[in-house]
């Protein structure tokens, strides 16, 4: 795919979701980091339900390390992998207190060294909390990028990120990240993509497969 083709796709998705944004509720970089850590293999909706009370009880890294681990586990038990995440949160908070004076570090290199913080989480934090352009590749971004041929179907997450960074102007990385998520979450869904009303059907691998199989034509005819 060339940049002209990518530009057309990006403009179309921007028109569909002009107000795309981070849907994890947070009031500061620390809360965002905790929320993104909790969101691994979990929906933003569930995370927001949990953090609505969690962020009232825990205001700072000190608060998280002051309670027994099993108490924190119970506070986030509705979250998938809650035991591991509770351990990561307490370990992260100890490092933030010991090494960064209780403040979340602002560089990608520092963030990925924190327990439970991978490349995707670090990208979300630097872009949303500190205004550093970044494209975080979650399941939605990866799926959309591959379906729309902005990346190869065999690409790993890092390869998808690098290809998107080449296709998208740097000043649009963060907005593009949010728009691709919204497009994947609300339109180009994993199981039931809205191919029949999609303006990008002609450049979509998944849509073309459905057209070829006849399943999409049948769906349209049945309406």
TrEMBL record:
It holds the Pfam family HHH. Transmembrane segments: none annotated. Its EC number is 4.2.99.18. It comes from the Bacteria. GO terms for molecular function: endonuclease activity. Residues 38-186 form the HhH-GPD domain. [4Fe-4S] cluster binds at residues 188, 195, 198, 204. InterPro entries: DNA_glycosylase, Endonuclease-III-like_CS2, HhH-GPD_domain, HhH_base_excis_C, HhH_motif, Nth. Binds 1 [4Fe-4S] cluster. It catalyses: 2'-deoxyribonucleotide-(2'-deoxyribose 5'-phosphate)-2'-deoxyribonucleotide-DNA = a 3'-end 2'-deoxyribonucleotide-(2,3-dehydro-2,3-deoxyribose 5'-phosphate)-DNA + a 5'-end 5'-phospho-2'-deoxyribonucleoside-DNA + H(+). It is an enzyme of class 4 (lyase). HAMAP family: Nth (MF_00942). Belongs to the Nth/MutY family. This is Endonuclease III. It comes from Paenibacillus agricola.
